[in-house]
Every structure is written in structure tokens, then in C-alpha cells.
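Our collaborator T.R. sent over the components below with a one-line note: 'Predict the complex.' Nothing else. No constraints on interfaces, no templates requested, no preferences about which chain binds where. So this is a plain run: every listed entity goes in together, and whatever single assembly comes back becomes the starting point for the next discussion.
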Amino acid sequence: MMMKHVLGAAAALMLGGASFAYAEALKLEGGKSTDMVLLPKFLGILVFDQANEGAQEAHAELANPGKLEFTGPTPENSVAGQIEIMTTAATQKLGAVMLSNNAGDQIAPAAEAAQAAGTKVVTWDSPVPSGAGESVFVAQVDFGSIGVVMADMAHSILGGKGQMAVLSATPDAANQNAWIEAMKVALAADAKYADIELVDVVYGDDQAEVSYNRALALVDKYPDLGLIMSPTTVGIQASAKAMQDEGLCDKVKVSGLGLPSEMVSYTMNGCAPEFALWDFRDLGYLTYFTAYGLATGQLKGEVGESFTAGRMGDFTIEEDPSRAGSKRILMGPFTVYTKDNVEAAAK
Amino acid sequence: MGVFNRIGPQGLRILALLAVLGLIVAFFAVQIEGYLNGRLFNRISSSVAIMALIATGQTLVILTRNIDLSVGSVVGFSAFATGSLISNHPDLNPLLLLTYSALVGTGFGVVNGLMVAYARVPSIIVTLASMALFRSFLVEYSDAKSITSDSLPAWLVDFPNMPVFSVGAMEFRAGFVASLVVVVLVHLALTRLRPARQFFAVGSNPEAADMAGIDAKRVVFAAFVLSGLMAGLAGFMFLARFGNITVVAGLGFELKSVASSVVGGVNIFGGSGSVIGAFLGAIMVDLLETSLVRWAVVSEFWREAVLGALILAAVATDTVFSRKLVAMRVARAHKAALAEKGASK
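Returned assembly:
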């Protein structure tokens, strides 16, 4: 049994409950044929493969006779490759493209062209910042609640008092920036965080060696640093490794968003006592249901529409509070891992 | 005066580089509190161990008027393949594992070398293609799994940070020392061994080299094979140091290695340069990067631009320095000759 210590995203549950009052959740009719593409930031990363597993599960469950393809660019060609695949999608008469966007607003013209050709664009994991060319964003968790969870982890690790710094991915990663912003808001909102000081935000480019060196530079720059908060799976692992290698784990802890399989040893030895993540299989599964509903015309993609996503229950399309004029579907909740549950999850 | 005259132009270049390095350290020591200590040395030396190997291979290629853009992908692939092998066979002999990593890199180097030297495709095109190709192999081979440090044996993970000896608070760690040994060996070979001098001959004047009976194709081929070998060794070091290997491992190393070589005085048009220079170039790039993160004056968004500007400034200063030194030496030699003439009259 997995002993999960689940933090509820209260807002998600309330919204989910509220939707029953207004509209009956639509049960999507299976068996309709539509070809779809699942487009990750790039290939070869575990979490994206997990999302694909979830999407394939939904594909089988809905008995779609069409094709579900998992294609993406190679790591060194991510931005240009995503735009290219999106551009090609418009000419292939695809039902939908499910995109974890790594190209910022540069993808918008290609996404708009795809929409004009009748291809729905459903984003997941990372949205189009402006929302242009996007039908709906399947948000893993409420961006605001990520901020609160990161602030809470910092509070618990630092014992309510101390300096922390953020190690992010790249300065233009839309989801990272939104989460860091949300954490700043959360820190300012409650008096219990008053003694936690956020001293710096640095970027490790989502590469092990850059993140590793940045983490050490932070320690050198701030001698009183107590915590490195890294909301990226590459950054958190590299930081934990750096602290362990230099024997700094007693002084500087690491937290953020990480994969249990990569973090288990650091959680058990105390370098990274707490971190969080959501389930990427579920995210892929929900994204597929959303895209299938839109591509087969059963969903119109309007605010207030509710539908049932198989085993995961009912979801409603709503205004995205962090991007005015855009729509989202909120998945949530996510799991906080500690030494009590990380070993089971890492298997 | 005798010593000064005996140092060749490459030696002067290295002196100039050391002077610029000293200036950079002095500048940041004034700007950043608690900058100058043993920890700074430990940070830079551990970090530069990997790039030093890659830049050494890159230098050999650039000497022959070529470029190798695939090194980052080769580092990534050999790190992953080596990690995968040791995870499945944890009791494998360390030397066998190192050999495996070197062979994987060499294999990729052979592919590049054959295409450039014998199929006569320009190296920038061959290696641009193989950079993407080798990276795609890695994506395919990895099956979206990661190598994690807890699947690696303790000897491998502990190796790079194992102190070999210390001078005060400065630790010379095994990873750095191993790299340094490789760099010095290659440097000695290039300056002392006749066959190794052919890299310079082919790069500075291919026609003349041909007339002198040097097989230019074989030399270019050898440069790419050695570059692959170095990238393979760097992959081993990368695995040992970071432990966690995904498909992005080594991304961007190709340009950083070219930057290190060029900053270190290797002529991008071939024919001149030294691996010691490239090694110092790698240290300089790393030092600037680390120091800029700690320098409060520059914001995150300007850091890349400032880094670029500082690299340019460093190259310019060091070029001026070494010209000055060469001019000084010529002037002294001239004076000495005049004096001798006067004496003999």
C-alpha cells in the first residue's frame, strides 16, 4: 500500500463540487475516430513518458479507432521542433494536438494556424502564456496552491525562520515563473512566514551541471542560507547532490518539485526532507479525455462545461485565474513526499 | 633575459592568460566579500575537470582547421551508456568501465572522422548533423529512463571528490587531478612527439604538409577519434560527478568547449594553439560564470550578456598582452644582436 500524504487543493474540490449544482457532467461517448498527437517539451524525459502512458490508457478506454501518436523534438531542438510539429499538425487534419509548451508565445502563430485548420490545441503541464491559439489548458494543480505548498515546505524545513533561495529552470519558463510568483504572494500573505527571507532567484537552465554549480554559488553568496527551493525536477536533484557532495546537508536543505525515484536517497539521508509532485499519468489521462471531447465535438470548450474523465471523476472548464481570458481545467491534488512515503513511491 | 627569450610564442600566450586570470580574480576579490578562499579553488577545479577534457579534444580538432560540434551529445551518450552498464553489473572492474566509456566516445569519433577526412564533407556540417543524430540515439537508447546516483557503486560517486592532496584549504580532488594529468600528457605529446606535431603541420599549411609526406586525411581522422575519446572520458567524469543522467546531459558543451579553446588562444583557423591554453580558457569561462552569479551588481537577465562581453574583453586583453610580450622579446633580441655586432667590430 502506498501511504500517501495527500494535500488537498481545496479550491479544486470546491469547484468540482460546485459544478454538480449547475450542470450535469457530460459522459463522453467512446468509439469515435480522431487522430491525435501528444507533444511533450522534448523526448526522453520520464515524466513525459508517464503522461503518455496515461494518455494511452485513456485512448484504449475510449476505444478511439484513430491514432494516438507520441512525438516530440529532441532535447537540443526543443523550441524549433515544437513549432515545426505544430505547423505540420495543421496540414495533417489531426483532431487535436496535446502540447506541453516549451516555446513560450512563439508557438502561438502555429497553434492559431492549427486551430484555423480545425485542429484543437489542448495544453498540459505548461500553457501558452498569452493563451493565443490554445483551446484549453489542463493545469496539473492550481498555480496559486503550488505557491502555498512551497511556502509551507519552506516553513516546516526552516522551522519558521531563515533564508531561502530559489533555483529555477530558465528565466522564460512560464510555469516556473508563475509558481515562484505564487510563492512570493503566499509568503507575503501570512504572518507565519514573516521570518522567512527569500534572498535570490537563480536559473540552472534545467541542466544538471549548470544547476549544480548555481546551487554551490548560492551557498557561497549567502553564508546564512538555510534552504534551496527548486521547483524543477532537474534543479532539485542537482542541488541535493551538490549539498551532499560538499557535506553541506546539515546546514542547507533542499526542497521543491521532484521525482520520488530520483530523490529517494536524498530524502532518506535528510538532504531533501520534503518535496512535492503530481501524478503525470493522471495528467496525461485527463488531457486525453479533454482533447478527445473537443476533437469529436462533444465538448465546445466553453467556460462552465462539465464532463466525466473516466476513473478520475468530473471536471469543469473554467476561467484561468493566472491568465486573463484563457480557459483551464484543474486537475490537482498533489503529493508531498517525506521519508515516510518516498520509498514506496520510488518503486 | 635568457629564460624570457627561450619561451616560445605559445608560452607567452599562456603567461598572458595567467595574467588575465589574475586580473579577474583580483577584480572579483575586491567586489565580492569572502571571495578569495580555498572554497573558490575547490568549486572551480571540480567543475572544470569535465570541460578540460572536452576542450582538449576540441583543441586537437580545431588545430587541423576543423570543428567538432557533436562533443556534447557524445558526452551525454557515453555518460548514460556507462551508467547503464554499471547499474546492471555493479561489480564491474573500474578500469573496464572507464575503457567502455572511452570506447563509446571513440566509436562516435570514428564516425565523425570517416565522414570528414575520407568522405570530405565539411566538419561543421558533419558534426552539426551528428550532434542531433547522437542525441537522438541517446533519446532512443534511454527509453526515457534516468540513471540515478543511488544505482551507481560508491567508488564511482566518491571518486571525483576524493581529496588527493591539499594545500591549505585548497583541495586537489581526484577528478581534477585526473583531468590535469590527461591535459599535461596531451600537451607533452603535442610539443615533444614527432607524429603529434603533424596536427600543427596540417592545420597551418595543408599543401606544405602534403608535400612533406604527411597523410593529412589520417591526421584529421585521428583528431576526430581523439576528440571522441576525450568526450567519452568526459562522459565518465560527468556520470561520476552528477550521478543523475537524463537525455539532456552534456547539452551545450560543444559551444562551451569551442569558447574555452578560443579564449585559451587556439586559433579558430587552425595551426596554432595549445591544450594548456584551452585548459586555462576553460578555467576562465568557469570562473567568470561562477563569479557573476555571486556578483550582486549584475541581474540574472544581464548575466549571459555580461559573460559574453567579459569573454570578449578577456580575449582582447590577452591578445594585446601576448603581442606586447612578443614585441618586447623581438626588441630585446634586436638589441642583443646590435650589441653583439658592436662587440665584434
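Summary for T.R.: Chain B has one domain: 2-335.
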